[in-house]
Hints:
- The protein is mainly α.
- The protein has helices spanning 4-36, 38-49, 53-81, 83-100, 107-121, 124-133, 138-149, 151-167, 177-199, 212-229, 237-241, 244-264, 267-275, 279-307, 311-330, 334-355, 365-397, 401-406, 408-430.
- The protein starts with a helix and ends with a helix.
Amino acid sequence: MITSDEELGASTVRKVAWRLLPLIALGYGIAFIDRVNISFASVQMNRDLHFSATIYGFGAGLFFISYAVLEVPSNLLLVRFGARRWMARIMLTWGLLAAGMMFVQTPLHFYIMRFLLGAAEAGFFPGVIYYLNQWFPAKHRGRAITRFYIAAPLSGVVMGAVAGTLLGLHGRMGLAGWQWLFLVEGLPAVLMSVVFLLYLPDRPSTVRWLTEAEKLWLEIRLDAERALATPAGDFKHIKALLDPRILAFTAVNFLYLGSYYAFNLSAPAVLLAATGLSTQAVGFLVAIGGLTGAAGMIFIGWHSDLRKERYLHLAVPLMIVAGCFGVMAFVHAPVVIMATYLIFMAAYFAVIGAFWTAPGEILDPRSLAVAVAAINGVGQVGSFLMPFAWGIVRDATGNFHAGLTALIVPYVLAAVIVLILRQDHLRRLTA
Length: 431
């Protein structure tokens, strides 16, 4: 029999989810498009501007250096000024800079704009993770994170579907196709900054769409979890960052995130070379990959919440991604490559769906903002180094085989670390 408390909890979480998650998901989807649409633009841009794979890899990766450096400061400012105003600021500046990518003409222009774009977007994702921890109790958090993060794979559907059309505008009004792509896909972030400023609430106590009883239910649950995560007298940012478990999650994020961007920022070029498809057909393949990625993320978020287990739900998809890179490196049948890419997308976004639920179950929320920013920031360093290395290898070998082969290793290492973390978690439960 459902108790009144259970009914109250279900009503509260449902209201919070419907009010917050669609708005945050839309904002993050736009951010993800502006971050990786360069992968499609590069098909024309590198040719028009005579950029080598090394130049492209270095410039594409520079985004993640400024993003990493400013992650923690941005999240501290978010806590100080409130999510509504700070996230609106982030969206405004990154939207203007994303559209401004259309003016790139030289490698130096490219490097500066990518660096500034990373600085503008810094703090958005870890800010959202911190923000959701202020609204959702732990047992609902996996589904909440995946429901907002589902915008990342779904943005691939939009990007893949429209990229071919935008690149096809080449020559219209004196602009290249890649310039149209940056312009059209950058401006929505500017519009969304206004929406965030008007409609994103800072905290549960400020909203009118929760009853007093629902606010009290949420406050009691969140306060109880904060008390369990870290004793009140044990609150130290540095101590949280040096927790061996947080350091391990930082290493995992470095390995899987950097490897993903090394591949993803060149994915259209890889798929063009491996399948012989047209640019528009590759766009549709990427769009379908967005759907399989969304399916993988939804499943893992639901199933990890159901089982109340995070570690195997992370280790298994990490190994599947490693296997997908192996297939793409050593199998040359176009149909197999296309199928493997779709599986890769499902497994990678399953990794994301499981990964960010775990830190919130280890730390006090006061430390979580800084810890998540640090984890994500170090991961962005990997997202600079690995695309740069990928470009160097591509120029040295003339193909993508060596790069795809190398990407197997980081995912296997990440899976091993997660399994060690699982053993530590089980030991703590029985201690």
